[in-house]
Structures are given as structure tokens and as C-alpha cells.
């Protein structure tokens, strides 16, 4: 089955890189903030891309879309990030057609996540699809695919236990703090950055550590205040960052900046300090490790930490894959229907031409010709014929492509490239 666009010879691709082959530094080179994503979408429209969605998270950056060649999508990515084509080629993956569809299902289901069962990616895919739709860059194929992936994700989350335990970076970070910081309830904790990961981390901190000494700082103070208000936490100005760092025991950085926001020069205190960097690209400079009393954990480190529920979650993979196979099969069935729909439509138009010509002939031949009744009977016959052909094409035991070509040839229908 070819996953082709209806208007020109373009194919559906998934291109990107993830934690599997790209380390934090390389992933940082290809990270896209909101402005970069917006610029990429605008550029895609300018070069004639019909449908495209782009996601960029802490463990992957991906583009799904239609293109004549994957390089069109790679070029868009490199022109809107610090990454180069050479870097991309060393760590990237490129999937085409059915493989690209299967890849999106695995990503959206949490089976391809850095932490098995992490479902935060599905919200990223939803947001990406909404942004593309606003820009007129979401065709029927990609919209249907996204909805199918969402459906599969929901089923896996409700029908399996794959999301039990530490299934997100935010929860894994809190679990690490609880396991490695003695008397964590009474320690000073500073959260720098209140984006999505920061918000989720804050919620997990409050829920699991029972700590009332949590301070929030964000460049835009009102965003920190929104988060703090839910949990009655303290908010400090960005200008007080250094002062707060030197008073804290645990520093969590999730700013989403393109360059490090914390380095050794901000740390003047000599007491033990644990820093967790939950950002891509890295937001904590590695020079903090030159300070003997500082420990630094990056999100890539967290993914290596296993808990007692990991084996239980792994045992759920076969069930999750079965759900994926079912939903993906439904999507492919819909796709097959779209594949032959243009031919059925062309056949119906051809039969309608036959009807019009024949009714015109009979109208001239017969006195008192009942045109209304003849119209009804003719339309019913045309519908029965086209339904018969449609049922034939839906038969899995019959080669669809051969049948389509035969129908086109017999009824002299115009050749078409309507293979979605």
C-alpha cells in the first residue's frame, strides 16, 4: 500500500531523532521552541507542503508530513534549529508510508518513550495537530491518523497497567529525590521553570514529598504564580535566582531555554546541592560538576533508573501491541476505502452519463415517457452497481490495485494518482 497524497506524487514520511541514538547535546541542537515550530510551519506552507505536524519534546524531535522526498522535511528542521544535515544523518531515522504510520502509533502509545508508558507525548501530538490545523496544514489523512493514535493511546492507558509506576520524567525526578535525599520533607526545594514539565514536577513534589518548603521561579513571574496558587507555594522574582539557589538543597531546572540558565558561578554556597536538569537542550552547564558539593542528574540519567514496577509494565507490552495492531488495522481499512473511493466516484459519474444519454433517447422514442419514474429506477440501478464494485474492492482476498486498473480500463475512466 502506498501512502500517497491525492494531488501530486508525495509520500507520507516520519523523520526525526530520539534518545535512542542522540544524546542530550545532539537532541538540544534539534530542539524546537514554540516560535521555531511556528516558523517551520510557515516555511512549510511557503514551499508547498500540504500537510505536516512537528513535535519537539525532551527526548525526541519529529516531523510527520507529505513530501516528494524526505530531504524537504529534513531541510525544514535544520533551517529552524542549530542542527546540521550531517548531524541529523548520524542519529536520525526516516520512515515512509506504512512504517511512518506504525512509528506514530508506537510513539503516541508510550511504547517508544524514554520511560516506558510515558503518555505525555500524546498531548504533544494533539497540540501539534491543532497548530497545524490552524495553519491549514492538516489534511484528512493526517487528521484521521492522529485521531486513531489518540484512540489507541486511550485504550492502552485504560486496558493495561503499562502506565503504573514512574511513567514520566516529572514523576521519575521526584522519585529520585525521595530515594536519594534524606529527610526530604524538611529540605528546601527550588523549582526553576514552570512550563509543562515544571508544572507536572511541582504537582508530584507536593503530592509525594509532603514538603512545604518549595519555591518557584520563572522568567515570567505570573506563570509561576498561577502554578503556586494551586498549591499555596512561595514564588520569588527571577532576579533572586542566585540568592535562592544558595539557600536550597534541591534545585530542579526545567526552563526550556536554548542555552544553559544555571552554571557554577551562580552557586556560592558550600552545602550539598542536588541539581536535576529536566531540559533539552541542557539548561545546567556541566561546569557545576567542578564544585565538589554539587551533584547533577539529567533526565537521560533518570530514564536509566528502574523501579519495582518496571518489570510489571514490561509484561503489559504484548497487550499494548495487540491494541495498537487492532486500531492500526482499522486505520488501514479506512485508508483502503479512500484508495478506491475516487475510482468508485468516477465510475458513478460514467454510469450517470450513460443514464442521461439513454433517458434522452427513450424520451424521443416513447410517447408518454414517465421521466420521473425512469430517473428513480436508473439511479437505484447505478447505486446497486457501484455498491457491488465497492464490496468487491473491500474483499481482502482480492488485489485492490489490479481490480482498480481493470475497472478504469473497462469503463474508460481517467487515470488517477489517488492513492492516499
TrEMBL record:
Matches recorded under PROSITE patterns: GLUTR
Similarity annotation: Belongs to the glutamyl-tRNA reductase family.
Note: During catalysis, the active site Cys acts as a nucleophile attacking the alpha-carbonyl group of tRNA-bound glutamate with the formation of a thioester intermediate between enzyme and glutamate, and the concomitant release of tRNA(Glu). The thioester intermediate is finally reduced by direct hydride transfer from NADPH, to form the product GSA.
Species name: Xanthomarina gelatinilytica
Site feature (Important for activity) residues: 103
Record's signal peptide: none
Pathway(s) this gene product operates in, as recorded in its UniProt entry: Porphyrin-containing compound metabolism; protoporphyrin-IX biosynthesis; 5-aminolevulinate from L-glutamyl-tRNA(Glu): step 1/2
Cross-referenced Pfam families: GlutR_dimer, GlutR_N, Shikimate_DH
Entry annotated with the keyword NADP: yes
Reactions mediated catalytically: (S)-4-amino-5-oxopentanoate + tRNA(Glu) + NADP(+) = L-glutamyl-tRNA(Glu) + NADPH + H(+)
UniProt name for this protein: Glutamyl-tRNA reductase
Gene name as annotated: hemA
EC number from the UniProt entry: 1.2.1.70
Key word Coiled coil present: no
Domain remarks: Possesses an unusual extended V-shaped dimeric structure with each monomer consisting of three distinct domains arranged along a curved 'spinal' alpha-helix. The N-terminal catalytic domain specifically recognizes the glutamate moiety of the substrate. The second domain is the NADPH-binding domain, and the third C-terminal domain is responsible for dimerization.
Record-level GO BP terms: protoporphyrinogen IX biosynthetic process from glutamate
Biological function: Catalyzes the NADPH-dependent reduction of glutamyl-tRNA(Glu) to glutamate 1-semialdehyde (GSA).
Amino acid at each position: 500500500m502506498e501512502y500517497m497524497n491525492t494531488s501530486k506524487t508525495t509520500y507520507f514520511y516520519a523523520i526525526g531523532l530520539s534518545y535512542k541514538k542522540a544524546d542530550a547535546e545532539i537532541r538540544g541542537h534539534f530542539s524546537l521552541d514554540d516560535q521555531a515550530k511556528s516558523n517551520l510551519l510557515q516555511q512549510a506552507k511557503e514551499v508547498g507542503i500540504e500537510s505536516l505536524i512537528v513535535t519537539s519534546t525532551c527526548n525526541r524531535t519529529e516531523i510527520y508530513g507529505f513530501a516528494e522526498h524526505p530531504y524537504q522535511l529534513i531541510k525544514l528542521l535544520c533551517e529552524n534549529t542549530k542542527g546540521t544535515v550531517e548531524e541529523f544523518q548520524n542519529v536520525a531515522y526516516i520512515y515512509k508510508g506504512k512504517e511512518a504510520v506504525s512509528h506514530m502509533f508506537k510513539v503516541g502509545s508510550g511504547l517508544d518513550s524514554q520511560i516506558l508508558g510515558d503518555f505525555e507525548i500524546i498531548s504533544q501530538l494533539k497540540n501539534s495537530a491543532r497548530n497545524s490545523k490552524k495553519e491549514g496544514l492538516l489534511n484528512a489523512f493526517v487528521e484521521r491518523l492522529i485521531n486513531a493514535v489518540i484512540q489507541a493511546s486511550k485504550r492502552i492507558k485504560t486496558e493495561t497497567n503499562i502506565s503504573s509506576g514512574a511513567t514520566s520524567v516529572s514523576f521519575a525526578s521526584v522519585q529520585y529525590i525521595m530515594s536519594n535525599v534524606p529527610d526530604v520533607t524538611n529540605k528546601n526545594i527550588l523549582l526553576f521553570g514552570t512550563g509543562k514539565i515544571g508544572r507536572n514536577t511541582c504537582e508530584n513534589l507536593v503530592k509525594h514529598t509532603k514538603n512545604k518548603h518549595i519555591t518557584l521561579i520563572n522568567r515570567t513571574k505570573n506563570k509561576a504564580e498561577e502554578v503556586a496558587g494551586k498549591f499555596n507555594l512561595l514564588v520569588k522574582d527571577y532576579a533572586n535566582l542566585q540568592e535562592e539557589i544558595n539557600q536550597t538543597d534541591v534545585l530542579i531546572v526545567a526552563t526550556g531555554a536554548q542555552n544553559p540558565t544555571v552554571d557554577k558561578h551562580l552557586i556560592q554556597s558550600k552545602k550539598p546541592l542536588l541539581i536535576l536538569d529536566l531540559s533539552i537542550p541542557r539548561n545546567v552547564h556541566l561546569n557545576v560538576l567542578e564544585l565538589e558539593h554539587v551533584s547533577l542528574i539529567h533526565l537521560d540519567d533518570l530514564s536509566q533508573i528502574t523501579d519495582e514496577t518496571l518489570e510489571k509494565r514490561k509484561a503489559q507490552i504484548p497487550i499494548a501491541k495487540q491494541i495498537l495492531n487492532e486500531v492500526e488495522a482499522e486505520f488501514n481499512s479506512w485508508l483502503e476505502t479512500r484508495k478506491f473511493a475516487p475510482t468508485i466516484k468516477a465510475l458513478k459519474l460514467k454510469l450517470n452519463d450513460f443514464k442521461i444519454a439513454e433517458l434522452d433517447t427513450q424520451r424521443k422514442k416513447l410517447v408518454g415517457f414517465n421521466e420521473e419514474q425512469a430517473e428513480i429506477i436508473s439511479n437505484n440501478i447505478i447505486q446497486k452497481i457501484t455498491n457491488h464494485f465497492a464490496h468487491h474492492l473491500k474483499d481482502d482476498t482480492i488485489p485492490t490495485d489490479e481490480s482498480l486498473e481493470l475497472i478504469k480500463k473497462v469503463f474508460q475512466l481517467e487515470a488517477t494518482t489517488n492513492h492516499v
